[in-house]
Design brief:
Blueprint lengths: L3 H28 L6 H24 L6 H4 L9 H12 L6 H7 L12 H33 L9 H22 L9 H17 L7 H18 L7 H23 L9 H19 L1
Helix pairs in contact: 1-2, 1-6, 1-7, 1-11, 2-6, 4-11, 6-7, 7-8, 8-9, 8-11, 9-10, 10-11
The structure holds fe (ii) ion (2 copies).
Amino acid sequence: MLPREEYIRLSLLYNLFWLRIMKEHAIFMESMMLPPARLLSAQADRYKQQFERLLATAIRLAGGALPKDVLQSGQYYTRYTEEAERITQKHTGILINSDLTRMAYDIEPYSPHVPITAGKEQEISQFNTNILNQTIAFIRFKSEILSSQTTCNLFTLMYTAVLEHILHEGQYYIEILQRLQRRDETVAAGYKEVWLHNMAEHAAVMRGLFDPTEKKPIEIANQFAHAFESLLQTELQFINGEALADTEAFSEFKANTTRAIIECKVKSIMLPLFTDHLLREANHFIYLMQS
Ligand SMILES: [Fe+2]
Ligand SMILES: [Fe+2]
């Protein structure tokens, strides 16, 4: 049974990360739709707005609840996020509320003076239930798009593997929320396998989205894909050091790629917010391994 204080802290820790991830999945889906799918892209935009509202609430509730090192772990924003949002909005025409990013810089770190009351627990519990309902609706939307695409009734610019990937991430977030709502102590159970899979998929997707002339980054992404796939073949309890070292190296590659895209120094069909999103996911995994 999770004690009240831990329930509140973990709820905010995960929601701050995942709500931004969900909002960006909506942005990526919207950006990959072609004109005949304009109703679907409008729907994706409404999900983006819903998750932006939820993220604003999470930021407000997080004041005084999380230690400074958690807030600055690179899982909520990076040094590139704001600029990546600006460029992505410019290139896609999709409105992206960067106030939420600036608000995240200023979240007050943990303070023993912020009282943990039963009222706060109640507020968090209602918030989690609300998120759960909206995330369930969102994964239904994702799976409809996925099945339309796999049956060739819909053509988007997203790889089917990416649609599956973002669907699985949504399902995993739902699992985390359900564990939190049961006050289950093993909220993070199984995270290593989930995130190693995700890292392998990120590497394979990045490999396929650089311009074919960009031989070097394609080669590096390919090496990461193989490295994470081979880690997945190993007994997971024995690979702590290797998983951490590989993920740190991959995080650096994602950061360098994001910077290169922002500075127009690499040819690809990746939006900078997409690679920054992948970077934050790697940083979240690193955080979980170190905590
Ligand atoms: Fe994601
Ligand atoms: Fe991902």
